[in-house]
Amino acid sequence: MKVVLINTVANTGSTGKIVTALYRKLEQESEDVCIVYGRGKCDPSIKSYKTGSGMDFLLHVLRNFFRGESGFGSVAATRKLIAYLEEEKPDIIHLHNIHGFYLQCEILFEYIKEKNIPVIWTLHDCWPFTGHCAFFDYAGCGKWETGCEKCSRHRSVYPYALFCDNSKEAYERKKAAFQGVKDLTIVTPSRWLKELVEKSFLKDYPVKVIYNGINLKAFFPEEDKKNPSDRYIILGVANVWEKRKGLVYFKKLAKMLDERYRIVLVGLNPFQRIGLKLTRYSRITAVGRTQSVDELRRLYSSSAVYVNTTLEDNFPTTNLEALSCGTPVITFRTGGSPESVDEDCGIVVEKGNVEELKKAIEEICAHLERYPVDKVAEKAQRFREEKMVEGYMKLLEKELY
Question: Structural domains in the chain?
Fold first, then answer.
């Protein structure tokens, strides 16, 4: 069996790690497998193909800025990719994120339809069935159900079409490209996203939920997990602290919580860190972005509670990382985020309710004995990487044998 995995990145970020985990398992099973990616670098031990170049990426970004055509640039790079696929002759293509300014999606899907190649498509966000955005939950927009047009957020949210609202045309082009594949199965990492897909123009395809997995060998409770003192670390982690990640709620909490609580935020950029210092948020410790798993594990393990203030999300792996380290989770009722949390390992709060968020933090910190480290960490077993990979392997085997 020859499998081609396609994603924006390899190795890095949550989607890149998922793709790499699948690659390793397929390789272990002696299957012929390759990762196609568009940005960053790939482990040299992995058979891979990088599509496009830095200049190609820049031209695609500019095309989107001026014409609103995310996913419709990189024409030459995609034709070269098709030539590569013709040589490889994959038995199955497993798509992940195909946005990110590295592919022309119409050309790719035209090739898939022409060759009748079976496809598994893991959706990590809503971009495939909207005319513009990757998420619309924060805005409460429902235009994607009938056909996007007159987008009010095309300038302010990814993929940032600064000078042109092309949402109506992009919606129709995606719909034409993505419909009509003879053998395509959609995978979503949450029930929440599955329900959205079943309302979209992709509804005729079968949809299966396979939760994202976490490497329990990397994330586990440190021996000195809990400090029995009456001072508590409240942790927040984001790859990029954009508006939808809810940084504003931590700023509010810093003024509402008493001196027993210290907020630690990971992933803030230099401007955000300087901004916190200038505005004298003394109870917030700002930490830059880190790729160190050991550092993240220590931060999760030393915290009383992990707080996820995301306002738009699919199935955040930071929740899983915290649980794996034995740390209870508080999350807004956003997207699929609550699907990893129950009453034995955390609290779900209505989105945007900072008063309830404060109460939940105080409740957990006052009763940490209700959340034993081993019991919280046990909850992460539901989302171990091996279980995720097993789910995908069964799907691949079903497609081909």
Answer: 2-213+385-400 (3.40.50.2000), 232-382 (3.40.50.2000)
